[in-house]
Design a protein that fits this description.
With 457 residues, the chain is an alpha+beta fold. Helix content is 24%, strand content 31%. A hairpin with a 3-residue loop joins strand 25 and strand 26 (297-298).
C-alpha cells in the first residue's frame, strides 16, 4: 500500500481521517512518519510539504540508458521549475531532491502553498526537470558539463504544465502534479559536441607548413583546419583553428605555428658584362640582378654602381645586395667591362681568328695580313691607356689600323653575296669606331701636349 502524504494533508489534517484509513501519525522534530499495514515510509516534510507525481509508480522517470524507471542508485536529482505564462524563463522552485526515494522513479520534493488547497488566482507554467547529480548541482550545470566516461549527463524534462499558483513568492503549484497532466518522461544523455585534440604549438623556418591532423575523440563526420596543412604561412605567429563536426554539433581547438625566417634571399648576379664605349666617357650600362626569398618571394636588389649609370672605359666591380623583412641579407659581385679603342681592336682580332676559318686561299692571305697589322697596332709601347696613344707613335697605330681595314674590305669585295658578309662589315665598323675615338682624343690632347712642350722649353 502506498500513501500520498501531500494529498492527505491537502484534504484533511484531522486525526479522524487518519483513523479511517488505519494509519498512525507521530511527530518528532517536524518529521511525519506514515505507518501502514503494507509499508513504512518516512518523508522529510521540508517546510511547505511535498510535491510529487501521484504517490505510486504510474508516472516514473525513465533512465534512457537502461529503459527502466530511475533507481535510487542512478544518482538522479529533480527539481520543480516555474515561469510566467508565455515566457521561457524557467526558474527552480524549491530545493532539488533525490529521484527513486521512496519509490523507484518517483519524484518527491518541492514546495506547496500553506493553504489546505491551492486557492484560485493567476496561473503559471510548471515543469519537472531531472539530471544526473554527478554532473552538476542543477539541470543547467549538468546540461553543459563535459563528458564523463565517454558520455554527457542524463537529463530530462517533463511536459510544461499550466496550473494555478499559490500565494507564496515565488508561486507554488498544487501538491498533486498528475492531476494537471504530468506524465512520465525519459532521461537521455546530453549529445555533446565531438571532442577534438589539436597538435601542440611549434616553430618552423619553412614557409610551407605541414602538420599532423588533429585527433577527434569521437566518431565525427568532418575534421578540417584553417589554414590547412601544406599552406604557405607568413613570418610570425599563425593561429590554426581546427573544427570537428558530427550530428551532435561542432567543436574546435587551436594551436600556434610560429614561422621564423633565418634564411637569406637567394641573389643572382650576371656573370659579367662587356660593352663597347659610347664615347670617351664610357657607356651607359643596365643590368637587373634578381633575388628570391623563401618567405617573401621576389625581394628588392640594390647595386653600386646603380644600373643605368655611365661606366668608364675599363673594368668596374659592381656589388649588389638584397635583404628580406627579417633582416637576412645576401650579396653578389660581377664586373662591367667597357671596351675602349684598344679593347675593341683586341676583341676584333680575336673574332677574326674565328671568322676566317674555312676561307679560300686569297681570303686567308688578306685575313692573315689584317690580323698581323692589328697585332702591330696593339704593341704596348704605342699605348698610354685604352683611348690614349703615345704621341711619338700615334701615326704607326693609325697606319696599321687603316691597312687592316683595307684588307678586310678586300675580303668583302671578294665575297659579295656571301652569308659571311654581315660579319666582315660588323668587324670593319667596330675598327672604324675605335679609329675615330683615337683620332678625336688625339685632337683634344694636342693643345694640352703643346702647352707642356712650351713649358718644358
Amino acid at each position: 500500500m502506498s500513501l500520498d502524504l501531500s494529498y492527505m494533508i491537502a484534504k484533511d489534517r484531522g486525526s479522524s481521517f487518519l483513523s479511517r484509513i488505519g494509519a498512525t501519525f507521530s511527530y518528532q522534530a517536524k518529521r511525519w512518519c506514515i505507518l501502514a499495514t503494507a509499508a513504512l515510509s518516512c518523508l522529510n516534510l521540508l517546510g511547505q510539504g511535498t510535491v510529487h507525481f501521484g504517490g505510486d509508480n504510474s508516472t516514473p522517470i525513465i533512465n534512457g540508458l537502461t529503459r527502466s524507471p530511475v533507481a535510487a542508485s542512478d544518482g538522479i536529482k529533480a527539481a520543480l521549475y516555474w515561469s510566467p505564462i508565455g515566457t521561457t524563463n524557467f526558474r527552480p522552485l524549491g530545493a532539488p531532491v533525490n529521484v527513486g526515494i521512496p519509490l523507484p522513479g518517483v519524484f518527491v520534493g518541492g514546495a506547496r502553498s500553506t493553504d489546505p488547497a491551492t486557492p484560485g488566482g493567476e496561473k503559471a507554467q510548471f515543469q519537472v526537470r531531472a539530471w544526473e547529480a554527478a554532473y552538476g548541482a542543477s539541470h543547467e550545470e549538468a546540461a553543459s558539463a563535459p563528458a564523463q566516461g565517454g558520455r554527457g549527463a542524463l537529463i530530462g524534462k517533463s511536459s510544461i504544465l499550466v496550473m494555478p499558483t499559490g500565494n507564496a513568492t515565488p508561486p507554488t503549484p498544487p501538491t498533486l502534479l498528475t492531476a494537471y497532466g504530468l506524465e512520465s518522461f525519459v532521461m537521455q544523455p546530453v549529445q555533446l559536441p565531438p571532442s577534438i585534440v589539436c597538435p601542440p604549438d611549434f616553430s618552423t623556418n619553412q614557409p610551407i607548413v605541414n602538420y599532423s591532423p588533429p585527433v577527434p575523440g569521437d566518431v565525427v563526420d568532418v575534421v578540417f583546419c584553417m589554414p590547412p596543412s601544406g599552406s604557405t604561412l607568413p613570418v610570425g605567429t599563425n593561429v590554426i583553428v581546427c573544427t570537428a563536426s558530427s550530428a551532435s554539433g561542432t567543436n574546435q581547438c587551436s594551436f600556434r605555428v610560429t614561422v621564423t625566417d633565418t634564411e637569406p634571399p637567394l641573389i643572382n648576379c650576371p656573370t659579367g658584362i662587356k660593352i663597347e664605349f659610347r664615347d670617351a666617357s664610357g657607356a651607359h650600362v643596365t643590368f637587373a640582378p634578381t633575388a628570391i626569398d623563401s618567405q617573401e618571394g621576389v625581394v628588392l636588389v640594390t647595386c653600386l654602381p646603380v644600373s643605368g649609370a655611365i661606366f668608364p672605359i675599363g673594368t668596374t666591380a659592381v656589388v649588389c645586395a638584397a635583404a628580406d623583412a627579417s633582416g637576412n641579407s645576401s650579396s653578389c659581385r660581377f664586373s662591367v667591362t667597357v671596351l675602349g679603342a684598344r679593347g675593341i681592336i683586341e676583341d676584333v682580332l680575336a673574332d677574326l681568328a674565328v671568322a676566317g676559318q674555312g676561307s679560300d686561299p686569297r681570303e686567308k692571305r688578306w685575313l692573315k695580313r689584317a690580323m698581323g697589322r692589328l697585332s702591330l697596332s696593339l704593341a704596348p709601347a704605342l699605348w698610354v691607356d685604352q683611348i690614349h696613344l703615345a704621341t711619338k707613335h700615334d701615326k704607326q697605330v693609325f697606319l696599321n689600323l687603316g691597312l687592316a681595314i683595307q684588307d678586310l674590305r678586300e675580303i668583302i669585295r671578294h665575297e659579295r653575296g656571301s652569308v659571311q658578309l654581315p660579319v666582315w662589315q660588323s668587324l670593319i665598323a667596330r675598327l672604324t669606331k675605335a679609329e675615330r675615338l683615337l683620332a678625336s682624343v688625339q685632337i683634344e690632347d694636342r693643345p694640352k701636349h703643346a702647352q707642356k712642350v712650351e713649358k718644358s722649353s
